[in-house]
Design goal:
Elements: E1 12-14, E2 20-28, E3 37-49, E4 59-65, E5 67-72, E6 75-80, E7 84-87, E8 94-97, E9 103-110
Antiparallel strand pairs: 1-2, 2-3, 3-9, 4-7, 4-9, 5-6, 5-8
Length: about 120
């Protein structure tokens, strides 16, 4: 069992040409003995965004805090605290923070996906 404040988990920061103002943390992963899934959280600064990308696994997301937009099905969709997103495999997607507060996105991927 693992119980701890997520803020104590080391963040990986991304700030480059394809992603801006993103901090990612593996909340539960292989090092915890999780054989089937990986739970991550991404904190996206106001004006920040993840890279636009695709991959061959589905993932599920929950907007824990903040407001923004997610690109999927060829267009942008508004999301806010409490939004739930299912992203099918091989669908191009990207998340951006359009609000003034930190956008916190909890994301679950299968164990074969890279943890971060």
């Amino acid at each position: 069992m693992k119980i701890m404040p997520y803020s104590e988990i080391k963040a990986t920061h991304v700030d480059n040409d394809v992603a801006r103002g993103v901090a990612g943390r593996v909340l539960v992963g292989k090092s915890d003995g999780a054989d089937n899934f990986c739970m991550r959280i991404f904190e996206i600064a106001p004006g920040g965004y993840t890279p636009r990308h695709t991959h061959n696994w589905e993932h599920e997301m929950f907007i824990h805090a903040g407001a923004g937009e997610i690109y999927g099905q060829g267009r942008w969709h508004s999301v806010a605290t409490g939004s739930v997103i299912f992203m099918p495999a091989n669908e191009e997607h990207q998340i951006k923070n359009t609000g003034t507060d930190l956008l916190k996105v909890v994301c679950i991927v299968p164990s074969q996906a890279p943890e971060l």
